[in-house]
Amino acid sequence: MSENAPLGSLYGVVFECPVPAELAAFYRAVLGGVLDPDDDEWVDLILPGGGLRLGFQRVPAYVPPEWPGDSGAQQAHLDIAVGDLDAAEQSLIALGARLMDTQATFRVYVDPVGHPFCTVH
Question: For the Glyoxalase-like domain, which residue ranges apply (predicted)?
Answer without folding.
Answer: 13-119
